[in-house]
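Consider the tokenized backbone below.
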């Protein structure tokens, strides 16, 4: 009997390890494909892959996060009608809504939520509403982790594109991009699966701010 119990426990452990290994392998493969994606179709296909993983691994937040991220990023490549952007952002929001129910202490989810709100600003009539919502999400992301570089990167982006008459502009955005740059340079994700995006674009935005100083 003891032998049977020991074998059952061993089989359970080995099965768990196998599932964990397959999960990590699938995640790493698809995360690498993010950098290879070149258009909205690529990103939506990849989002579907992450959704499948999320359905199989419903106790993990990262697959749903990356599905939302891919739907979100799909709106940033190439020209796209505003209605089509909002449809993709609706898909991203659906993933975020699920994640928020059981992951209310994860800074990266709130940071991505802020990004989605920023991209909702497809015309001036949406500016006030979604800027406020984005800033509220960033406030929560910062509260959960004051050292999350994506918080300051997105604050900088929002400030950069806000008219000076409403408290925005390059001068006010620059310190935020600078803070984000320091945090991007000083931090490494604890593992390969964790979010690690924004550094390159933050550098580009900071460069634009510095060019503004020379004008």
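A designed sequence for it:
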């Amino acid at each position: 009997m003891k032998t049977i119990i020991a074998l059952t426990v061993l089989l359970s452990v080995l099965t768990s390890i196998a599932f964990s290994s397959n999960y990590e392998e699938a995640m790493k493969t698809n995360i690498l494909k993010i950098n290879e994606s070149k258009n909205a179709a690529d990103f939506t296909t990849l989002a579907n892959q992450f959704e499948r993983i999320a359905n199989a691994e419903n106790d993990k937040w990262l697959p749903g996060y990356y599905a939302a991220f891919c739907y979100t990023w799909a709106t940033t490549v190439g020209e796209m009608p505003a209605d089509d952007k909002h449809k993709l952002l609706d898909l991203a929001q659906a993933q975020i809504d699920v994640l928020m129910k059981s992951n209310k202490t994860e800074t990266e989810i709130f940071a991505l939520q802020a990004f989605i709100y920023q991209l909702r600003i497809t015309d001036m009539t949406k500016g006030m509403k979604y800027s406020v919502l984005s800033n509220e999400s960033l406030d929560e992301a910062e509260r959960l982790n004051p050292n999350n570089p994506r918080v300051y990167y997105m604050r900088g982006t929002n400030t950069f594109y806000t008219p000076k008459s409403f408290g925005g502009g390059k001068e006010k955005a620059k310190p935020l991009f600078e803070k984000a740059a320091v945090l991007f340079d000083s931090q490494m994700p604890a593992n390969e699966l964790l979010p690690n995006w924004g550094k390159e674009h933050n550098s580009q935005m900071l460069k634009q701010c510095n060019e503004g100083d020379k004008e």
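The longest helix spans residues 2-36.
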